[in-house]
């Protein structure tokens, strides 16, 4: 692959790409939460504003199914946002381990680390962040599926709750 410096630069590039994938997953969560929250708010507003006569068995059923599916989307989206704190047991890169070490000890360890040790540390961090990115995208996908499944019962609930007869 080249010199140790080139390998370290490549490792840094790969790590930054993995961190970008994690950020991309978290950005998608924001959109999911915003849409699901709006759907849940609309559902609640329609249900509370509906005349008692329009709160039929079907309206209640559609409302409950939509609310459950939306809640599933919000729950899995929240799980995707949870920080992942598990990392390498010894690292000069992982903030969790850096914070556990006294500042002078960290400075000394950083000063004496070899390029090979640093490359191993970066490689372990790359692997861990790739696992985190995979986990987050699985949860984002599940949140999107829950949310997409909620669309039809949500729409049906809104229509049955705000239904008005002609002339009224």
What does this 3D model show about the protein?
Helices cover 79% and strands 0% of the residues. It is an all-alpha fold and 168 residues long. The chain has one domain (4-162). The longest helix is centred in the last third of the chain and has 48 residues, at 115-162.
What would you say about this model in short?
Helix content is about 80%, strand content about 0%. With about 170 residues, the chain is an all-alpha fold.
Strand proportion: under 5%
Unreliable residue stretches? none
**What percent of the residues sit in helical stretches (DSSP H or I)?**
over 70%
* Structural class assignment: mainly alpha
Mean pLDDT: 90
SSE ordering: HHHHH
Determine the oligomeric state from the structure: single chain
For the secondary structure, the number of strands is 0
Largest sheet: none
Sum up the overall morphology in one term: elongated
Total of DSSP H or I helical runs spanning 4+ residues: 5
Radius of gyration, in angstroms, nearest whole number = 25 Å
What's the end-to-end separation, in Å? 76 Å
What number of domains?
Answer: 1
């Amino acid at each position: 692959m080249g010199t140790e410096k080139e390998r370290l630069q490549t490792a840094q590039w790969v790590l930054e790409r993995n961190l970008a994938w994690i950020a991309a997953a978290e950005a998608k969560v924001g959109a999911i939460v915003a849409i699901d929250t709006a759907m849940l708010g609309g559902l609640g507003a329609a249900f509370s504003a509906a005349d008692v006569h329009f709160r039929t068995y079907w309206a209640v059923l559609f409302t409950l199914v939509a609310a459950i599916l939306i809640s599933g989307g919000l729950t899995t989206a929240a799980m995707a946002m949870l920080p992942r704190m598990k990392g390498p047991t010894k690292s000069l890169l992982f903030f969790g381990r850096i914070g556990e070490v006294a500042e002078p000890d960290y400075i000394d360890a950083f000063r004496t680390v070899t390029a090979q040790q640093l490359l191993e540390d970066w490689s372990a961090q790359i692997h861990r962040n790739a696992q985190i990115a995979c986990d987050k995208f699985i949860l984002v996908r599940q949140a999107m599926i829950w949310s997409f499944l909620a669309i039809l019962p949500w729409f049906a609930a809104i229509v049955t709750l705000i239904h008005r007869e002609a002339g009224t």
